[in-house]
Structures are given as C-alpha cells and as structure tokens.
Write a structure and sequence with these properties.
- The chain has 500 residues and is mainly alpha-helical.
- Among the domains are: 196-264, no CATH class; 273-498, MetI-like fold (Orthogonal Bundle).
- 66% of the residues lie in helices and 4% in strands.
- The chain contains 20 helices and six strands.
- It has helices at residues 12-18, 20-36, 38-61, 67-85, 117-150, 157-166, 169-186, 188-191, 196-201, 223-229, 266-302, 304-318, 322-332, 337-340, 345-372, 375-382, 387-424, 435-442, 452-479, 490-498; strands at residues 101-102, 108-109, 207-212, 217-222, 246-247, 253-254.
- The strands form three sheets. The chain has a two-stranded antiparallel sheet with strand order 1-2. The chain has a two-stranded antiparallel ribbon with strand order 3-4. The protein has a two-stranded antiparallel sheet with strand order 5-6.
- Helix 2 (20-36) runs antiparallel to helix 5 (117-150), helix 7 (169-186) packs across helix 11 (266-302) and helix 15 runs antiparallel to helix 17.
- The radius of gyration is 26 Å and the shape is globular.
Length: 500
C-alpha cells in the first residue's frame, strides 16, 4: 500500500473515485480545450523534439558519426509534423484567413466571410488570446476544485501565498504581459498577418493576388516585389511609409506597419522574434538554474571544500567580461554547427547559461545553507538516508520558490542583453528574427514618418523585461510577506515554495 502522511489519508485517485463528478466535469472541458488545438500543440511538441535531436546529434557527432541516424530521425519528425499540420485546429490561418484581395465590386475575396483583412486578422487575434486566457483560467479552476473537493487540509501555507499573489497588482500586471508574450511566441504562425516563410524566408517563391485600381483588374505578383514596393523608408511622400494599422497598395493589412528595405510586415517579424527571445531566455535560465540548484544543494549539504571550490569557480566566471566572452565564442564557433543554429541564438543561450549561474547560485546559497541546518535534515542523516534523497525531499522544496523569483528576474535581463547584442551586430544574425535587429534597422528613421520601426520593438522590449521583473516581485512578496520590509518568513516560505 502507498504510504501517506496520515494513516487515514487516501491517495488522490481514491479520493476522486469517491467523488468523481467535479473531476470528470473539469477533465471533460480540459480535454476539449486540448482537442481543439491538438494539431498546434503536437506541432510545438514536435518542434521541441527536433531541437533536442539536432542538439543531441551535434554533440554526439563530435565523438561518433551519427549523421545518418540524425537525418533519419529528422525525416521521421518532419513526417510527424506534416501529419500534425493536417489535424484541424480551431485557431488557424485556414479557418480565419486574413489574406485576400479586393474585387472590382469593392468587396474582398479570400478573407474570412469576405471581411476586410484588418477585421479578419483582428478576429483571429482575439480568438487566440481568448483561448490562452481561458485555458489558464481553467487550470486555475482545476486547482480550486482540488482544494475544495479533494484536499484533506483546510489550510496550508500555500493558501496564504496564493491569496497574497491574487491581491498583488504589480505581480498580476507582470503575469498578464508575460502570458501575452509567451502566447505571441507560441502562436506566432497563427497571430501573424502573413507567414514568415512568405514574408522573409522565401518571398519570391510565393504568389500574391491584388487588385490593380489603375488597370481595374486582379493581378498577380510575388511577396518579394510587393515588400520592396511597400517598404517604409521614411520619405516625405506618404507612400514611402506604411505605418501602424494601415493597408499597403496591395491590399495587405499591417497591424504595426512595414519594415525598411527590403520590406515586410513588422508584426510578423516581431512575433517570430518573440520565439527566438523566449528560446534564448528559457534555455539560458534552464542551464544556469540547473547548475545553480545542483551546486547549491551540494555545497549546502557538504559545505567545507565543496563550498570553497564553488566560490572560487563562481568568482572566476563572474570576473570574465560577458561581452568579451560572447565575442570570443562567436569567433571560435563561427564555423561550428553551434554557431549556425538559430544563427547564433543557441550559442548565445549557452554562453548566458554559463555566465548567469554564479549569480543565481549565490542568491540561493543562503536559503540552501539555512535549510541544511534544520532538524529534519539532521534527522534524515541520522537515519541513514541517502544524501541525494535528503537533498531532493528536504532541501530542494525550500529553494524552489527562491529560484522562481530569481529566474523570473534574470530572464528579463537575458532578453534585453540579447537584444542589445543584436542591436550592436554581435548577437543573433539575420535571417533569424530578433527584436534588437529591428531596433537597429529602424534607428535611422526615428525622426521620420517611419518612426514605428524602432519605436514599437523598443517599447515591447521594455514592457516584457519590466513584466518579468514585476512577476518576480509578485512571487517574492507572495512567498515571503516580510520581504518588502527586509525580513523573512523562512518556515512559511519553505512550505509555500514546494510544500503540499
């Protein structure tokens, strides 16, 4: 029989069997939410698997030649991706198309219900974010259902943490903006007015129909020619700029305007650039957080020489100028597959992961040392419990809350630093989109009619970085109610950070 904290406490599955109604109702709606977006969710999962295969294969290839195996695996995953793309989804460009052309009668052909492209795109935009926020709301309803119907305890320290977070307006602002940023990255193909493939990767290979008012007939061109003709160049002629919320001469709607020569849609580039920023930020924080937690547990448990060695290594890494290290790595790996992946994005993420772990480790070192001195850790040692089990069960839950705070605040720094490097031309290189690149492309147009090119991504960078910091503040204040006053509720934070 499974051991439980109390002799009369039943496992969660048994509690659900005793009262299945609420769980079944919640599960049915959750399954429906997954089903309507199954194709898109599978596509995201397959993209992650392809990334893992490509990275893992590149590392293994340095020791053993597995090129044929990697090619076979990628081909198989590509087939799965095409199959996933055939699964109908509620939120798709095919269901709510916004690309079409004006007919001689003044209507629109090829758009959703014959609506203007701006309206069709707006409907798809609203549907995507309505789905995302309802999905998160339903997850919250699942937690609330668990507390109401299936949890034995009437109160846990986590309840106070949730209550404080629900009244923390600054943290809620950060949460909403972060969710919108993540949704923009995940649903970039759906939210963009045009696919990045047609807009930037292969614009001369995709045809575009438009209504030629002078000739009075529908004609065909390609995206490349249309982008060149509608690029925002900041001239005195209004035709030299397609600004925020305007149509171009080919009947295409641009929510945030167009880019300078060779042109293209600004919203599309920013949406796909959000994917790159999220990838770099999450990978860098994942690597640095993993190293920091591992070393934090080891140094807190063993102390002595282990702690001294970690201090020396972390001090040495923090003494290295980050910019110089990035330039050095870019030169060393310029011909390596690491430098080619995401046009330098992977390399930047790895370098950031290496640079940031000492800072995170120092931040969680104190809480880890504090919990290592508690009675329950000494009791576990005296009973002969393995060190790995003690660290995982009795120490890790204590520092998880602190890690969430520091990771949320650090990821904003990674995003803005990546943008700064791309702005300087030593970060992620085209054609991989990145927000700092767009700011650099538009800096010469700030005082012209094409001010939106640099202004919009600049505001987004500030907003997203501020949101991650606000979310970190909210989590910190929720875990530790005395944090604003400089104190600390250590025992409550321990339970709230990972307790049950």
């Amino acid at each position: 029989m499974r051991e439980t904290p109390y002799a009369d406490e039943l496992p969660l599955r048994a509690r659900i069997r005793e009262n299945p109604g609420p769980a079944l109702a919640w599960g049915a709606v959750f399954a429906l939410l997954v089903l309507v977006e199954l194709g898109a969710l599978l596509g995201i999962a397959i993209d992650v698997l392809k990334f893992v295969v490509e990275i893992g294969g590149g590392l293994i290839n340095g020791v053993v030649d597995v090129t044929a195996g990697i090619a076979a695996a990628m081909g198989y995953l590509d087939g799965l991706g095409r199959a996933a793309g055939q699964i109908p989804t509620l939120l798709s460009r095919e269901l709510v198309p916004n690309q079409g052309y004006r007919t001689p009668s003044g209507g629109w052909e090829g758009t959703f219900l014959g609506l203007p492209p701006a309206v069709a795109w707006g409907i798809r935009f609203v549907l995507v974010y309505a789905y995302v926020f309802f999905f998160l709301y339903w997850l919250w309803r699942g937690y609330d259902l668990f507390v109401t119907h299936y949890r034995y305890a009437d109160w846990t320290p986590r309840d106070d943490m949730v209550r404080r977070l629900r009244t923390h307006r600054w943290g809620q602002f950060g949460f909403v903006v972060v969710v919108m940023f993540v949704a923009l990255a995940l649903f970039a193909p759906t939210l963009s007015p045009v696919t990045y493939q047609d807009d930037a990767m292969d614009p001369y290979g995709a045809e575009l129909k438009y209504f030629d008012e002078e000739a009075g007939e529908v004609r065909t061109t390609n995206y490349g020619q249309a982008n060149l003709a509608t690029a925002s160049t900041g001239g005195d002629d209004p035709a030299d700029t397609v600004s925020i919320g305007e149509y171009d001469e080919y009947g295409r709607f641009h929510p945030l305007g167009t880019l300078p020569t060779p042109g293209g849609d600004l919203f599309t580039k920013l949406a796909y650039g959000a994917r790159v920023s999220l990838f770099v930020g999450l990978l860098a924080i994942g690597i640095s957080g993993l190293i920091a937690v591992g070393l934090g547990l080891l140094t807190a448990y063993y102390k002595g020489l282990a702690d001294l060695a970690a201090v020396v290594v972390s001090d040495s890494i923090q003494a290295i100028p980050a910019i110089l290290l990035l330039i050095l790595m870019s030169v060393v790996f310029s011909e390596h597959w690491l430098g080619d992946f995401y046009n330098g994005g992977l390399l930047i993420a790895l370098v950031f992961g290496f640079i940031y772990w000492p800072g995170i480790w120092r931040l969680i070192r104190g809480p880890a040392m504090q919990v290592s001195e508690q009675e329950w850790v000494d009791a576990a040692r005296s009973y002969g419990q393995r060190s790995t089990v003690t660290m995982r069960k009795h120490m890790l839950p204590y520092i998880v809350g602190y890690l969430l705070v520091y990771a949320s605040m650090t990821i904003g720094g990674v995003i803005i630093t990546t943008s700064a490097l791309s702005f300087l031309g030593i970060g992620i290189n085209p054609p991989t989109p990145e927000w700092g690149q767009v700011v650099a492309d538009g800096r010469g147009y700030v005082a012209t009619a094409s001010w939106h090119i640099a202004f919009v991504p600049g505001v987004l960078i500030v907003l997203v970085v501020t949101a991650f910091n606000a979310l970190g503040d909210g989590i910190r204040d929720a875990i530790d109610p005395q944090s604003e006053g400089g104190g600390g509720a250590a025992e409550e934070a321990a339970v709230a950070g990972g307790g049950g």
